[in-house]
Design goal:
By secondary structure, the chain is mainly alpha-helical. It folds into 3 domains: 213 residues, Orthogonal Bundle (Clc chloride channel); 221 residues, Clc chloride channel (Orthogonal Bundle); 133 residues, CBS-domain (Roll). Helix content is 63%, strand content 4%. It has 24 helices and 5 strands. Helix 6 packs antiparallel against helix 7, helix 8 packs across helix 9 and helix 17 runs antiparallel to helix 18. The protein is elongated.
Length: 590
């Protein structure tokens, strides 16, 4: 009864386009509230868990318990994901992009809570990753859940997924503008009014929930002591180039370490190696513990000496050693992050990219101030560096620009933010065309982009367009057997297979029309003599973009789909084109 009532209500709500638009706006508000609550819960849970396990201990004593904490956190995370959730819940943003590209924006229900629990275990115990990706996955999953609940179409589903992500980001950073831009820039949500308004509603709602529950304080709050001066512009250009190269190191080296960790098949051995290695790094450089925002805040507020004293470099005021400390942090933050995720921890690259950008900016400014006659503002360089590395790692310059602008509560640094973030993005794009989120998806041909033609093809899958209503003929059959099959067939193509369905070729009815009406040939001509092997075959793992290219390069109207040598069916040019036009129309509608 409840199911029938719900179905009736949904049908009524979706009965006209105006009702659907109103429904989407209401859902955006709800998604923003839920995403904001989830973000607040996650941040507070991690903070309180960290306080609980570290009570009575501190880094200044180089406590040896911190050698064990990362292993414990990663071990508990893997146990939770493997034996309770029974699913891979890492790489949250990449998982959202995959769902948009390959599954119409449908995410699993457990993603509404599983990544929150797993990331809490990872980060609270010292995992050197961020909480943003897990909470974005949570918010997007909430949006996906409501989209599935109301049976909304593909495009609306993607908007709600983006609304969830915007609400989550806005709640974490209390930066609603950057949150909307993140969804447009990273999740590839189309910039149309029908998409923008729900994103704005969810983003503003998420931020207000965070303000209401956590007060007006933000993650970073800075009073700029010095604005932007044109004479510093060349140094911001140089910072942009450095940020681009650091972003390249970040992306490639982290993926390399993860790939090496993935070669370890035994999960416990992987956790043991990763946990011990991460514990050792944190023991030597305590600043690598957790997200790193507290370290970054102290660094930007000129407390670098105290941070160095906590490391194995010990008490020093030597300026060169301070620079060495910053270089070590830059190098090993990537290592610590990749070990965390590679060994089974759950977290994202959002916080590490901001962390490394801030460290790079401070290093750059201190180096200039120490070894040249020029004086540049360290705090400004740190903030602009954060935008630069984020822009490079995520291939999202606008997100980096507006996030830091909202951090600082104004637009005094807007020009250097634009310059540095843009140059960083251009620099890394020259070497790496895809972001850390999209590289693996692009390699598998699963990347959803703002290019409508490619995006529509990405949403089409061979298995949904496979035609199997073709009568087959055995490889040892005669012409007489073939004529009998043709009499029962509605198609003009007959695939030739053996008893195990191994594909040998096809017979076109038009090619045998001159002999099929000569009964005297029925027992003398074998099918193997009149068939031929097509020059183009389709594998079911191929992308629809590749299939479209094959049709474009051939004159065939039907192409056989073959997996491991066995016949599965055909894909037809007409059916694919018809589906393409239908999806393109749906995708382009306001």
């Amino acid at each position: 009864m409840f199911t029938d009532l719900r179905a009736s209500l949904i049908a009524k709500l979706l009965s006209n386009s105006r009702s659907q638009r109103q429904l989407v706006l209401v859902l955006s508000l709800i998604i923003g509230i839920v995403s904001g609550l989830a973000a607040v819960v996650l941040k507070n849970t991690v903070f309180n868990t960290h306080l609980l396990i570290t009570h009575g201990f501190n880094f200044t004593d180089s406590n040896y318990l911190y050698l064990a904490f990362p292993f414990i956190g990663i071990f508990l995370t893997v146990i939770f994901a493997t034996y309770m959730i029974r699913d891979n819940i890492g790489h949250g943003v990449s998982r959202i992009l995959h769902a948009i590209s390959r599954n119409n924006g449908k995410l699993k229900k457990h993603n509404m809570y599983s990544s929150m629990v797993a990331s809490t275990l990872t980060v609270a115990f010292g995992g050197s990753v961020g909480l943003e990706a897990p909470i974005v996955l949570t918010g997007s999953s909430v949006g996906s859940y409501f989209g599935q609940l109301f049976h909304l179409n593909r495009k609306t589903m993607m908007v709600l997924v983006g609304a969830g992500a915007s609400g989550a980001i806005a709640a974490i950073f209390k930066a609603p503008i950057a949150a909307v831009i993140f969804s447009l820039e990273v999740l590839m949500i189309d910039l149309t009014m029908s998409a923008l308004i729900p994103l704005l509603i969810s983003s503003a709602t998420g931020a207000m929930v965070a303000y209401f529950l956590m007060g007006s304080g933000v993650l970073f709050s800075f009073d700029l002591s010095e604005g932007f001066y044109l004479r510093h512009l060349p140094y911001y250009v140089g910072l942009g180039l450095l940020a681009g190269m650091v972003s390249l190191y970040f992306s490639r080296f982290s993926m390399y370490i993860e790939a090496q960790m993935n070669k370890i098949n035994n999960w416990f051995v992987k956790v043991l190696i990763g946990g011990v290695a991460l514990g050792a790094l944190i023991f030597m450089l305590p600043s690598l513990y957790g997200e790193g925002y507290e370290f970054l805040h102290q660094l930007i507020n000129h407390k670098v000496d105290a941070l160095v004293n906590e490391s194995l470099l010990g008490h020093t005021t030597n300026a060169s050693l301070l620079l060495l400390f910053l270089v070590l942090i830059l190098i090993f933050k990537v290592v610590a992050m990749a070990i965390t995720t590679g060994s089974g921890g759950v977290g994202g690259v959002f916080a590490p990219s901001l962390f490394m950008g801030g460290v790079l900016g401070i290093f750059y400014a201190k180096f200039i101030n120490l070894y040249t006659m020029i004086s540049v503002p360290e705090k400004n360089m740190a903030l602009v560096g954060m935008a630069g590395v984020m822009a490079g790692v995520m291939h999202a310059p606008l997100t980096g620009i507006f996030l830091i602008a909202e951090f600082t509560g104004g637009y005094e640094l807007f020009t250097p933010l634009i310059v540095t973030a843009t140059i960083s993005y251009i620099t890394i794009s020259y070497f790496e065309p895809h972001s850390i989120y999209t590289k693996r998806l692009a390699e598998r041909g699963e990347l959803f982009t703002h290019h409508k033609d490619k995006s529509v093809l990405q949403m089409m899958h061979i298995e949904n367009h496979l035609e199997t209503n073709f009568k087959t003929i055995g490889i040892e059959a005669t012409l007489g057997d073939l004529v009998k099959v043709i009499a029962q067939s509605e198609r003009n193509v007959i695939p030739v297979v053996d008893e195990e369905n191994v594909f040998y070729g096809i017979v076109f009815i038009n090619d045998i029309r001159t002999i099929m009406f000569q009964p005297e040939l029925y027992d003398t001509i074998l099918v193997s003599e009149i068939m031929y092997m097509p020059d183009t075959l389709v594998d079911p793992s191929e992308s629809m973009e590749e299939v479209a290219r094959k049709f474009q390069e051939t004159i065939h109207y039907n192409l056989p789909v073959i997996k491991d040598g066995k016949y599965l069916g055909f894909v037809s040019r007409a059916r694919i084109f018809s589906s393409y036009r239908k999806l393109l129309k749906e995708f382009s509608e306001e």
